[in-house]
Amino acid sequence: MSRWLLVAVALVAAGLGAGATYLGGLYRPIAAGPERTRIEGVVRDYLIRHPEVLVEASTALRRRESGKAIAADRRAITEPYGNAWSGNPAGDVVVVEYFDYNCGYCRASLPVIDQLVASDAKVRIIYRDWPILSDESATAARYSLVAAEMGRFRQFHEALYAAGPVTDATIQQAVARAGLDLAKVRAAVDTPRIDAELERNLGTAKKLGLSGSPSWVIGDQVVSSALPLEELQRLVAEARAGG
């Protein structure tokens, strides 16, 4: 954040609009001299007393930029692949989880998501495969997408997480527990449509600035962290209120 952006934030917060000249719809910094020195001193004192102003400004800027990125790729974010979703299909708030099958925090989020759906009949969950941790994660994601095409996403999803670290053996076990034909699944995992979906997810995640798994898109907010139920509910409430 630039020096004069900090100044502008503090001036607005302190009600010191006179510290800048209003020209052509923009606030312009005052030229160097005693007046600017005085104003900079006021700003410095204000920021020391109220550092939360900077946090609020940074949060607002980050949220605005996230909102732009989400709006630009909303369909790629919120439209499920196959049946990789849960909750209310007509829900008024969509919660998107970007996950990796080798992520322990993603595994721990499974019951939290179930609790959210159980506590809120108007929420819809979208699951997006985002294999970033290992080659095995990428292989698992391909099988997951095929399971979603075949209408057995949730069964495969839960079975693979329950099996522990991803290996060829645990993937095959999850396929069997999901009630899928292993030969048919294997025939589909390397098809162009699966390639395209993974590339789309990876590209969208990059645009959104996701920094770790699990990551969430809720309304116009992006969060890269494991979240407790209460925080998910708060973000859903904000999205529902249009905040």
Say how many strands there are.
Answer: 7
> What is Rg?
23 Å
Secondary-structure element pattern, one letter each: HEEHHHEEHEHHHHHEEH
Shape descriptor reads elongated
Count the helices. How many?
Answer: 11
Overall pLDDT, averaged? 86
Strand content: 5-15%
Fraction of residues in H or I helices: 55-70%
Low-confidence stretches: 1-5, 10-26
State the strand order across the main sheet: 3-5-4-6-7
Quick overview of this protein structure:
The chain has 243 residues and is of the alpha+beta class. It is 58% helix and 14% strand. It has eleven helices and seven strands.
Which key features would you list for this structure?
two-stranded antiparallel sheet, 243 residues, 14% strand, 5-stranded mixed sheet
What is the fold's blueprint, element by element?
Blueprint: H1 3-14, E1 20-23, E2 26-29, H2 34-49, H3 52-72, H4 74-78, E3 85-87, E4 93-99, H5 104-119, E5 123-129, H6 135-149, H7 153-162, H8 168-177, H9 182-188, H10 192-208, E6 215-218, E7 221-224, H11 229-240
Parallel strand pairs: 4-5
Antiparallel strand pairs: 1-2, 3-5, 4-6, 6-7
